[in-house]
Design brief:
The protein has about 525 residues and is an alpha+beta fold. It has helices at about 10-20, 30-55, 65-70, 220-225, 295-305, 320-335, 340-355, 355-380, 385-400, 410-430, 450-465, 480-490, 490-500, 505-530, and strands at about 80, 85-90, 95-105, 115, 125-130, 145, 150-155, 160-165, 170-180, 185-195, 205-210, 215-220, 230-235, 235-240, 245-250, 255-265, 265-275, 275-280, 285-295. The chain folds into two domains: about 1-25 and about 320-530, no CATH class; about 120-135 and about 160-310, Distorted Sandwich (Beta-galactosidase, Chain A, domain 5), CATH 2.70.98. The relative contact order is 0.12.
């Protein structure tokens, strides 16, 4: 998109006119003043970065919090249950080590390891019951297991039965409580997720996630380090989200309190529902549903039938209305070509073809601006002291050449949201993870050899050179057009460095877009020369 900002574009011309209209003849900006403001900007940025990256003291965990994350149930017998998608380890009240069969841990084809959620010894999902008037099983309770069911009877004769089933990426925990006493008992279901922090992903919402009163809330790791968060809600879910995976739980009982906080080096989200009275001789049933899997829209749409709202947990960013269809089209293209690198190339060509009319109009406008330059400079000098007359003459000049100073910016304005939408789509797409293309093993990560960024910079320079009409900028010029032209010459180098650490899939998109632009410029020039 930067080609539309060159020294012959409507944007640069508009800046030049504004500069001429608002400054007196012969007035030059103080170099010392410019240096002063740049120093203020630099020092301010340095201070903000220092404040952001400075280590923060975490809140001191309470004794109860420390007890929660302690590994006190390692002696409890464990067993494994599975579906066609995942396997989970069950140890008493806790579920952990959730292995995702369809997702390899690395791009190494010889490595059979799968992605495993809550893989640490102290990472778990705990689903339990708080009891009033009697005792309930805790993390040290040894259950009796038979016919895929867990049972435990307390000293009052209350019978607790737990049934855990796995369906796809969902784990359903159903607790049945039989009140064999002669008094009313109150039971309040709860669930908590405890885990370590994983690396943040720039541009992706990671950390604690809750759905309270039908509103999705994100709390990043840095915020959890500073304070705890608590919400009251009629229902909803809670958990943690990473760049590609999320682990969520929904206690299917009304009137809940949800929390998110840090506990030493661990992080916890939990929910406790209101108590339910179970009268003598009656039974209480409590259900908690867990989702542990990828942040992939079709999978989350299917899971939403069991956990309402879980399909809305993907953060598509400000330009979600572009990001969602772009990701959908990208997946459709990949289903045909079976390679995401090729799919990105096809998507880029498709987008550029759709924008062809606007791009052609922009280029024709740029040619008109080049032809207007001598007359424009003459008008600017002639009416430098008469701002009203200057504006009138400039408007007449635009009408004569049937162009506008902003017409060259239309493709740029359209490409900005498309670029950021595609950037977001590539970052959140779990299918892009470990997707290879030529020498690149993971299109969601940076190019390890920096080949694509260099190609992108070279094609950007060539496209800029072809679209500038090979015009030279006067080094002694002080107007905004000349300044813009000099800055633009450095953009390919700046973008090369900036894109070197961006996802390779995004750099591939920009490189192909540049190549398409070069071919398009050649075709449009050839068509105009025939007229």
């Amino acid at each position: 998109m930067v080609q539309y900002l060159n020294n012959n574009s409507g944007f640069a011309t508009w800046n030049a006119n504004r500069n001429t209209a608002t400054n007196t003849p012969g007035q030059t900006k103080s170099r010392l003043g410019g240096f002063f403001w740049w120093m203020i900007l630099f020092l301010g940025s340095w201070w903000l970065i220092s404040m952001w990256t400075a280590p923060k003291d975490k809140p001191t965990p309470s004794d109860a919090d420390v007890a929660i994350v302690a590994s006190d149930n390692l002696e409890i017998p464990s067993h494994e249950i599975s579906s066609e998608k995942i396997s989970v380890n069950v140890r008493g009240l806790r579920v952990s080590k959730i292995s995702l069969y369809d997702y390899a841990a690395s791009s190494d084809k010889t490595d059979s390891a799968r992605v495993t959620l809550l893989a640490g010894d102290d990472d778990f999902i705990e689903v339990g019951i708080n009891a009033t008037g009697t005792t309930a099983p805790d993390i040290k309770t040894v259950w009796n297991s038979a016919n895929n069911k867990m049972t435990w009877r307390n000293t009052d004769g209350v019978i607790f039965t737990r049934d855990i089933t796995v369906d796809g990426y969902l784990v359903n925990v159903t607790d049945t409580i039989e009140n064999k006493t002669n008094r009313d008992l109150t039971f309040a279901p709860y669930a908590r997720i405890v885990r370590v922090n994983h690396a943040n992903a720039a541009g992706v919402s990671t950390g604690a996630i809750t759905n309270t009163n039908s509103k999705i809330r994100y709390v990043d790791w840095h915020s959890l380090d500073k304070k705890a968060y608590a919400y009251s809600t009629t229902n909803g879910f809670f958990g943690f989200a990473d760049q590609y995976w999320q682990t969520l739980a929904e206690v299917k009982s009304p009137d809940q309190t949800m929390r998110a906080k840090s506990i030493g080096q661990k992080y916890m989200t939990d929910a406790t529902a209101a108590g339910v009275v179970v009268t003598p001789g009656n039974t209480g049933v409590f259900t908690t549903t867990i989702f542990a899997g990828p942040r992939e829209q079709t999978i989350l749409d299917a899971a939403a039938t069991s956990i309402s709202g879980v399909n809305k947990t993907i953060d598509y960013g400000w330009f979600w209305f572009f990001a969602q269809p772009l990701l959908w089209i990208l997946n459709i293209l990949n289903s045909f070509v079976m390679n995401y690198g090729v799919a990105i190339i096809l998507l880029t060509i498709l987008l550029r073809l759709l924008m062809w009319p606007l791009t052609r109009k922009s280029y024709v406008s740029s040619i008109a601006m080049q032809r207007m330059q001598p007359e424009m400079q003459r008008i600017q000098k002639l009416y430098a002291n008469d701002k009203v007359r200057l504006q009138m003459e400039m408007m007449n000049l635009y009408k004569t050449h049937k162009t506008s100073p902003m017409s060259g910016c239309l493709p740029m304005l359209l490409q900005i949201p498309i670029f950021f939408a595609l950037y977001k789509a590539l970052l959140i797409s779990v299918n892009m993870r470990n997707a290879g293309f030529l020498w690149i093993h993971d299109l969601a990560a940076m190019d390890p050899y920096f080949i694509l960024p260099i190609l992108m910079g070279a094609t950007m320079w060539l496209q800029q050179y072809l679209q500038s009409g090979h015009t030279k900028t006067d080094k002694n010029a002080t107007d905004m057009t000349a300044t813009t032209g000099r800055v633009m010459k450095w953009l390919p180098l700046i973008f090369t460095v900036m894109f070197a650490w961006m996802p390779a899939g995004l750099v591939l998109y920009w490189t192909v877009s540049n190549v398409f632009g070069i071919i398009q410029t050649y075709i449009i020039k050839k068509q105009l020369n025939k007229k």
